[in-house]
Design goal:
The chain is α/β, with parallel strands linked by helices and 418 residues long. It has two domains: 246 residues, Rossmann fold, CATH 3.40.50; 156 residues, Rossmann fold (3-Layer(aba) Sandwich). Helices cover 42% and strands 13% of the residues. The strands form two sheets. Strands 3-2-1-4-5-6-7 form a seven-stranded parallel beta sheet, sandwiched between helices. The radius of gyration is 21 Å and the shape is globular. The protein starts with a strand and ends with a helix.
């Protein structure tokens, strides 16, 4: 088979698709990735065929939008970026539909894949990385800063209001304009039904993290966390290793690879480390967010393979992206999660419930509170025992292999149907 893969999103969405692409290619299938400019080098290094979409300037403009760190305004930015990507990805992938054995594979917001399925009849696979994509009236995911819930009988009504007044105006209205150009009818309830309409739907997270609910799409199946980090045996760069070896275990900090407006986050993080007498590693490819020069005991790196770095940390502070969170789980490191938007709130709640993390919302992320939360994690024997237990669960985990097998099995089952 020939797989055309479009991982729309951040670093945490692209890396798993590189892993899946390599696994499919190792099984003898043809693989071609369609990635946006910032991720081209990673795909190239993995030895996969690819097409670059858009310009680096487009990505920079999105990640530097201050609305990205606002829990409600972020949806306007994401919707605009998502819809701008649709024609680019659709046209590039359409030109590569060379045979009936072609399969398109996308992430939750890879709308182009679903359009190709509808317009050209190709098989489609959607891979969801977060449980929030699956709506449930039985056990709802957390979607905001506030841990509130509505009575079960009100949940369908609330979701219908969200679709009518927020989700569909932001996403469906623009998508329907492009659908009309393609001769496709309009769609509504985009996030309730349409994004789950692929032939194969996979949730890349385990049942013990987010059990499948009876009202999720019946054809959806769960596998395991991706945990792909530039391949097995990723090594620490020499400068990172030298910093780690030069003192006690530092605390790691990242606002996420999709964030370029986190100056305050880093300022607070540095002050919290000073209060604890700890060193710190600051991870961001946007160095203009950091003070110059950095205080003694701190180091900045654009990127370090998490599988190699995280086991060397005393604690890890991050935004709650599910890829980052699961890597920290596997490393057995205590986590302080500072969720900002979208699925991060739900990931934070589920991770805190495992006893391996604490949560601080952005408005509470202040030096004193941050230092106190970190001290409560680092000095807590119960937290460390829970970290070891969760890491043990992931010791033999291979989400990439399991997901690759599941996709091929499901596609094989579809081929056998009359």
């Amino acid at each position: 088979m020939r797989f055309l893969m479009h991982p729309l999103g951040s670093h945490g969405d692209v890396l798993p698709f590189i892993g899946l692409g390599k696994a499919l290619q190792a099984r003898g299938h043809q693989v071609h990735l369609y990635v946006h400019a910032p991720f081209v080098s990673q795909v190239y290094e993995a030895g996969l065929a690819f097409t670059s979409l858009g310009e680096m300037e487009d990505f920079e403009r999105v990640v530097r939008d201050p609305k990205l760190v606002h829990s409600r305004k972020i949806h306007h930015v994401l919707a605009e970026a998502t819809l701008a990507s649709v024609p680019l990805a659709y046209q590039a992938m359409r030109d590569d539909l060379h045979s009936s054995a072609t399969v398109v594979v996308g992430t939750s917001l890879s709308f182009a894949c679903r359009l190709l399925q509808e317009k050209h009849g190709v098989r489609a696979v959607t891979v969801h990385f977060s449980p929030v994509v699956f709506r449930s009236h039985i056990q709802p995911s957390r979607m905001s800063e506030f841990k509130v819930d509505a009575p079960a009988f009100m949940r369908p009504l609330l979701w219908s209001l969200v679709d009518r007044w927020i989700a569909d105006p932001l996403y469906a209205r623009g998508l329907n304009k492009y659908r009309a150009e393609l001769g496709l009818p309009p769609v509504n309830n985009l996030f309730r039904d349409w994004i789950h309409g692929a032939d194969v739907v996979v949730g890349m997270f385990p049942e013990w993290f987010a059990p499948k609910q009876a009202d999720w799409p019946t054809h959806a199946s769960l596998t395991d966390f991706p945990l792909y980090d530039h391949g097995d045996g990723a090594l620490l760069p020499d400068d990172v290793k030298a910093f780690l070896d030069d003192g006690g275990a530092p605390i790691g900090f990242t606002p996420g690879t999709f964030t370029a407006t986190a100056r305050k986050f880093f300022e607070v993080s540095i002050e919290a480390c000073h209060r604890l007498g700890r060193r710190g590693i600051l991870l961001t490819r946007f160095a203009d967010q950091l003070p110059t020069p950095l205080p003694k005991g701190f180091a900045h790196f654009d990127y370090v393979p998490f599988s190699a770095l995280l086991p060397r940390l005393a604690a890890f502070v991050h935004h709650g992206g599910i890829g980052t969170t699961s890597q920290a789980m596997q490393a057995g490191v205590p986590q302080l999660i500072r969720p900002v938007a979208v699925d991060q709130f739900d990931t934070a709640s589920r991770t805190v419930a495992l006893g391996i993390a604490r949560e601080l919302l952005p408005w509470s992320y202040r030096p004193r509170a941050t230092a106190a939360a970190l001290a409560a994690l680092i000095d807590n024997a119960k937290v460390h025992r829970s970290c070891v237990e969760v890491a043990e669960r992931l010791k033999s985990s291979d989400g990439i292999k399991v997901t690759c097998d599941r996709i091929l099995d499901e596609l094989g089952n579809l081929a056998e149907r009359p």
